[in-house]
Amino acid sequence: MNHKSVRFSRSNHADFIADLRKSVNNYFDTKDISVYANANMVLKTVFMFALFFVPYFLMIFGVVTNNYLVLLMWVLMGFGTAGIGLSVMHDANHGAYSKNKYVNKYLSYVMNMVGASSFNWKIQHNILHHSYTNIEGMDEDIDPGKLMRLSPHAPLLKVHKHQHIYGWFLYGMMTFLWLTTKDFRQLYRYKQMGLLKSQKRTYNGVLIETIISKILYYGYALVIPMVFIQAPWWIIFIGFFIMHYITGLSLGLIFQPAHVMPSADYPMPDETGNMENNWAVHQLFTTTNFAPKSKLFSWYVGGLNFQIEHHLFPNICHVHYKNIAKIVEAKAREFGLPYNSEKTFYSALVKHGQMLKKLGREPLVA
């Protein structure tokens, strides 16, 4: 069964999303504010880019030369890269950063700046993950490869018995796959699925774009540092590894606990491709918020701790999620629907670890 054959119900709680959208729209109208980025979002954007580029240029121009300080610069760049991805690129790729489509377009290319393909990300994240959340065979976020089992409908292998231990390490390796083979394998797969045509792009065109962007990335992120940074080559390689590991681990720890949780459902379509719930209700059953009261944490992770609000309103900038969360939760309760939320990030990680252990030992669900 392919993605085109899956159909969400139009009758089950059909009035929920209409009522919710009306309430959320009324919030923005009453406050007379835009659904897009505000001044605080722009300042955050400047900060995140500075967190990446200031350490980079301090090393390139020889201001920082001590080996330990050089490694510290790469650490800061790792947090900067993750911050840019979570807080800037993510909103831009959803068209939520600005009402100007060109601003969103060019900010979305930040994904290429960190060695990955913004085009592939849009398909994997915007189309497949947001449309078919936690549906085995559709949502690639729960299909990281044979070493991890993130769905009860996926085959169970012996190695999965220990995934609650080694899985955390693999999350840190995420961006290394982007740097090497993943983008090329994804692009070919999306061509076979007919998803390139829906985006009005050709395989060869995106392939050339991907190759060029990776050459440029390796040029500025590795070759230039090797030439200009006054440190041994192995220090630079270690720093490069640390930067990407921090980025991958940060992304994994934010995105996976939002859906791979004991409270999350993994619904599957029936033989004809029909889903039990409508799309909006499906998001409530498959998504979990965490640390809703942690302002600093929410600021850094681009509001993605409010994952429910993000899935229901991906076209609204994340700076508004905290405020509309009250509306979303109230409506969910009113309609007798779940609103899963963990009080802290730590408790979310604990529950996610428990789910990894459970999925690593329970047999395949038919």
From TrEMBL:
GO process terms (BP): lipid biosynthetic process
UniProt keyword annotation of Coiled coil present: no
Signal peptide: none
Keyword line: Membrane, Transmembrane, Transmembrane helix
An example Gene Ontology CC term for this record: membrane
Residues in Fatty acid desaturase domain copies: 68-341
Annotated protein name in UniProt: Linoleoyl-CoA desaturase
